[in-house]
């Protein structure tokens, strides 16, 4: 028991060190949520509608859409983000933009949530908790993880230029990267399914 107690802090420190990069990308996403919330003060329904394709911000005005339309809209937004992040990962300069990608994902959510809170009060808060948040939580975690993998792959691509001889197989690395991103895309589809189910179960309770 004494041995376990002695080594427990070190194990916790190693665990934090292992996930500190992921925590950094989550922090960037959280910063985007905060900035989006403040920016929502100057937003209106027309602005949210124009940004809806990329950020899927206009939740309030989409509450009367069918469940299939909700899934397609959510998955399309996630696919755009995942495609951009994937391309950043195979670019030598992509690592510079991986962190901003996570930030802008959070910014879109903060913008929509802030607008709904300001426009509809408590009704907007409950709408966010019941309809928006479950799917957005999964989607945000997926985007943060995808941005991290993209960052690492881009950094590894840069390192290949300075390694002599090259010990790793670039093709094997790309295959592993592509498979990982494909798995994350499936999780992105799961977040869209959560959006669809939450809209089916709870959106009838709200009218905007």
Provide a brief overview of the structure.
With 208 residues, the chain is mainly alpha-helical.
Q: How would you describe the overall organization of this protein?
A:
82% of the residues lie in helices and 0% in strands. Helix 3 (67-89) runs parallel beside helix 5 (122-160). The chain is an all-alpha fold and 208 residues long.
Q: Note the run of SSEs as H and E.
A: HHHHHH
Rg, Å, rounded: 20 Å
What do the pLDDT scores average to? 80
Largest sheet: none
Shape: elongated
The secondary-structure class comes to: mainly alpha
Uncertain stretches of 5 or more adjacent residues? 1-8
Total helical segments: 6
Let me know the number of strands: 0
Topology:
Blueprint: H1 2-39, H2 45-55, H3 67-89, H4 95-120, H5 122-160, H6 170-202
Helix pairs in contact: 1-4, 1-5, 2-3, 2-4, 3-4, 3-5, 3-6, 4-5, 5-6
Tags for this model:
single chain; disordered N terminus; 208 residues; 6 helices; mainly alpha
């Amino acid at each position: 028991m004494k041995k376990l107690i002695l080594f427990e802090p070190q194990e916790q420190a190693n665990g934090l060190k292992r996930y500190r990069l992921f925590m950094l990308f989550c922090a960037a996403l959280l910063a985007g949520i905060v900035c989006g919330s403040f920016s929502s003060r100057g937003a209106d329904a027309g602005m949210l509608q124009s940004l809806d394709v990329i950020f899927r911000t206009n939740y309030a005005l989409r509450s009367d859409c069918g469940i299939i339309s909700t899934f397609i809209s959510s998955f399309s937004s996630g696919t755009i983000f995942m495609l951009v992040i994937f391309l950043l990962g195979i670019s030598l300069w992509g690592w510079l933009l991986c962190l901003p990608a996570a930030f802008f994902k959070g910014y879109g959510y903060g913008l929509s949530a802030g607008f709904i809170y300001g426009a509809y009060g408590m009704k907007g808060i409950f709408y966010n908790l019941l309809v928006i948040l479950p799917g957005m939580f999964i989607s945000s975690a997926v985007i943060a993880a995808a941005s991290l993998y993209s960052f690492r792959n881009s950094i590894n691509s840069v390192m290949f230029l300075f390694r002599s001889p090259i010990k790793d197989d670039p093709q094997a690395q790309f295959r592993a990267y592509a498979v990982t991103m494909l798995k994350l895309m499936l999780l992105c589809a799961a977040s869209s399914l959560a959006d669809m189910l939450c809209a089916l179960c709870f959106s009838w309770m709200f009218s905007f």
